[in-house]
Write a structure and sequence with these properties.
Structural class: mainly alpha
Distance between the termini: 70 Å
Shape: globular
Oligomer: single chain
Largest sheet: 6 strands, mixed
Number of strands: 10
Length: 568
């Protein structure tokens, strides 16, 4: 259909698939980078932590706490963030300095580059480059990938590694179905694809916690779909597995240390006592008999919780209407996908079924694996932890759009007489489809750039930059500065916006007061809970401002609400 569209409009010589793909990459990059510093309206504290530790690493070879070149994770606030994104920030900060733009740049580049691999996956799964282009267009402008791709979330880079590595691994495995290759050429081509694939999959595990589960699952699934009736592939797969184990050995060796376990302990549902309490209550009602202890075992209730968590990521409300309840993870205006994609995804499943049941099984398997890591955590459904799901749904939606358009042309042909029915209908229906996609994207863009920052600036710790600037302007010589901690991580924002020399922080860090590795004081700055009754310049919310305080100035959110009072 798409090919007929460009032929009928005499554009095929100018807009070749290669040029169209380049245009889609540019589109994906443009919608992510335009206004990226102002929408979201401020860096979230995790972005600030990533940026300052990378800045410290660039200048001193260690994070701000003095840890030299961490391999597995940076301690950060005690949540041990995987190291990959920190290292990706080094060239960005070296060029653009310590800034919000520099922190977000690797994420938006990775999210834009995913467009290319969406095209490759869709094209090769369907043997149709126009389905590939349609899927790539959807990824470029879908709310899920578009919005998260503007933010310095590590999951963007991890998903790029995961999707590109899985694709190369799949292409390497698929070589064994080519009977034209002799053993030598097969081996050369296999390792030419699989070696970088293994490196990319390993890199994803060093970049985001969820990828440490998904990368092995994706690799195992791809291998399992190909090793059947191919004895030689077992040996090649074993060699690849040994290489992978070597690459991730630092993670494996640290698997029982806080570097890996701390984040698991914080987010895992297995730390939730609710299933145990429920099981005990049911047993008590049943008389605590032997049968009741078996029937009402805590693991049955945990399994129920796991299934509910998993299913929540595939629910229509999460995907098409409400999105993630966390305003930082979705717009709160649309779902993670456009509402009409509920139809195109179903149509895509049917279309791929008619094309190849094996390919449907393969794509469906990758889709169904994507929420696995997220289902073991609290706060589900979670747009970040299930982020790879967006890739496969974009492909299903792209397949559905193309097949739906072809069906529309077929149904409309009898209404038109003459030989030029297809030539007339193809550009009309193609233009309608493009108008729906870009119209939806325009509505979403208008909301995100105009409404979202005003409605949700409080979710992004907006105001810290203005606050720090004003406190410096009002500060008297040698005056102490006190900032309330009620809006989260003020010390890191001071380090970030003032570009404090990391060497001074590293030198003072062992003796500074901390709360979960967060500084409570540094030089003239102090960060407190509640109210502080000491001489100096203070900043606190209206509810924590003493009634007898003389307010010097205020800092407001974008909606006009006062968030900070400055007083002495």
């Amino acid at each position: 259909m798409a090919q007929q569209l460009f032929t009928s409009m005499k554009l095929s010589k100018v807009f070749t698939p290669g040029w169209l793909l380049a245009g889609l990459l540019l589109l994906a990059f443009a919608v992510r980078i335009i206004g990226a510093v102002h929408t979201p309206p401020a860096p979230y504290w995790e972005e600030v932590a990533l940026g300052y530790d990378a800045y410290s690493l660039l200048l001193t070879g260690a994070d701000h706490q003095g840890n030299a070149w961490p391999i597995v994770a940076f301690p950060s606030f005690g949540d041990f963030k995987p190291s990959g994104y920190f290292y990706a920030l080094l060239p960005s900060i070296a060029v653009f300095g310590l800034s919000t733009f520099a922190v977000r740049l690797p994420a938006l580049l990775a999210s834009s580059a995913i467009t290319f691999f969406v095209y490759l996956w869709a094209r090769d799964l369907t043997n149709n480059r126009w389905i590939g282009l349609t899927s790539a267009l959807l990824w470029a402008v879908q709310p899920w990938g578009w919005w998260l791709g503007r933010i310095g979330f590590e999951v963007n880079l991890a998903t790029f590694f995961l999707i590109s590595g899985s694709y190369l691994f799949w292409k390497g495995m698929a070589l064994f179905s080519d009977s034209r290759l002799n053993t030598k050429r097969l081996t050369q081509r296999f390792f030419l694809l699989v070696l970088p694939a293994t490196g990319l999959l390993a890199a994803s595990m060093y970049t985001y916690h969820g990828a440490r589960a998904l990368a092995p699952l994706f690799a195992f699934f791809v291998a399992a779909m190909h090793v059947q009736n191919r004895p030689r592939l077992w040996a090649y797969s074993l060699i690849t597995a040994l290489l992978a184990i070597g690459l991730i050995s630092p993670i494996l060796l640290a698997s029982r240390s806080p570097v890996v376990q701390q984040r698991i302990a914080e987010t895992s549902i297995f730390s939730d006592p609710a299933p145990v309490k429920t099981a005990n209550r049911y047993r008590e009602i049943a008389g605590n008999t032997l049968i009741s202890r078996v029937v009402f075992h805590r693991n049955f209730f945990r399994a129920e919780q796991l299934l509910a968590n998993y299913a929540s990521h595939l629910s229509p409300a999460f995907l098409f209407t409400q999105g993630d309840k966390n305003p930082r993870h979705s717009s709160q205006f649309l779902g993670l996908l456009y509402p009409w994609e509920a139809l195109t995804i179903v149509w895509g499943i049917i279309g791929l079924w008619s094309l190849s049941r094996w390919r449907l099984s393969f794509l469906a398997g990758l889709t169904l694996l994507s929420p696995v890591a997220a289902m073991f955590t609290h706060a589900t459904p979670h747009a970040l932890r299930a982020f790879p799901l967006a890739i496969w749904l974009a492909i299903f939606s792209g397949i559905g759009l193309v097949y739906m358009s072809q069906w529309g042309i077929k149904c409309a042909k009898p209404l038109l007489k003459g030989r030029n029915a297809s030539r007339l209908l193809t550009p009309i229906i193609g233009s309608m489809v493009l108008a729906i996609i870009m119209g939806s994207a325009s509505i979403f863009a208008f909301y995100q750039w105009q409404n979202y920052p005003v409605r949700y600036s409080h979710e992004w710790q907006y105001g810290y930059e203005e606050l720090i600037s004003k406190m410096r302007a009002y500060q008297k010589p040698e005056e102490n500065l006190f900032v309330s901690r009620e809006y989260g991580r003020p010390s890191m924002y001071v380090l970030f916006y003032e570009k404090v020399d990391p060497k001074t922080v590293q030198a003072a860090s062992p003796t500074l007061p901390k709360d979960q590795r967060e500084l409570l004081a540094f030089k003239e700055w102090s960060f407190f809970d509640g109210q502080k009754h000491e001489t100096g310049l203070h900043a606190a919310s209206p509810r924590n401002t003493p009634s007898d305080a003389t307010i010097i100035d205020t800092v407001t959110l974008l909606n006009g609400e006062i968030i900070w009072n400055l007083y002495r």
